[in-house]
Amino acid sequence: MKKTKMILGLSLVAISGLILVAADHIDAPGTMSGDAGDITDVYAFQGQNTSNLVFAVNTQGLLSPNATGAATFKDNVMVEINIDNNGDNIEDLVIQAIKRDDKMYFFGPVAPGTTGITSTVKTGAAAGSVKISQYGAAAVTAEQNGMKFFAGPRDDPFFFDLGQFQAILGGTATGFNNPGTDTFAGTNVMSIVVEVPKTMLGSSSTINVWAETKKKQ
């Protein structure tokens, strides 16, 4: 199954546990609010179990509470987490997430069949699956093969004061307020979260991480 890139989020993360994030809310070409292929944020951070690393990819930003219940992942959109563990900015490992019916299926970490903007689903590297959580219900998680999985709606965790940012650009303010106003307060995203033992990611102390959504051709 070949898929092609729709949108890219990028983050650099140190495997020691430093939290870094890339954010991109609705300003990529060809996307709109609620688009299943629109990545808003990519997070990578050390898990509560310090031997694990957690990856979170959020999509479909600016969902209102009324719209969240109807928001869904799409069967023809794959979320792919790319991991470069030798510093050449080319993915050495991928973790793939694909929706089928009411579950999200995960593959990897595994070497990609091809690098770049096309991908092959690595069906031989099945890692596990989790039932997709529903809005307003308790979160459903699953643990298989030493990994943990979640997929479903979450409150948008990204904090940004858009009004103050625009004031800075317009020359009417010189900096951000503390704490400022969270533009994304009260809005939701569709999240995919996977926790992976660091031993599955190679021996490097630092990795580069980016995420893509790829649509079935």
Automatic annotation (TrEMBL):
Keywords in alphabetical order: Signal
Superkingdom as given in the UniProt entry: Bacteria
Pfam families: DUF4331
Signal peptide (residue range): 1-22
Name of the protein in question: DUF4331 domain-containing protein
Species assigned in the record: Flavobacterium sandaracinum
Lineage: Bacteria, Pseudomonadati, Bacteroidota, Flavobacteriia, Flavobacteriales
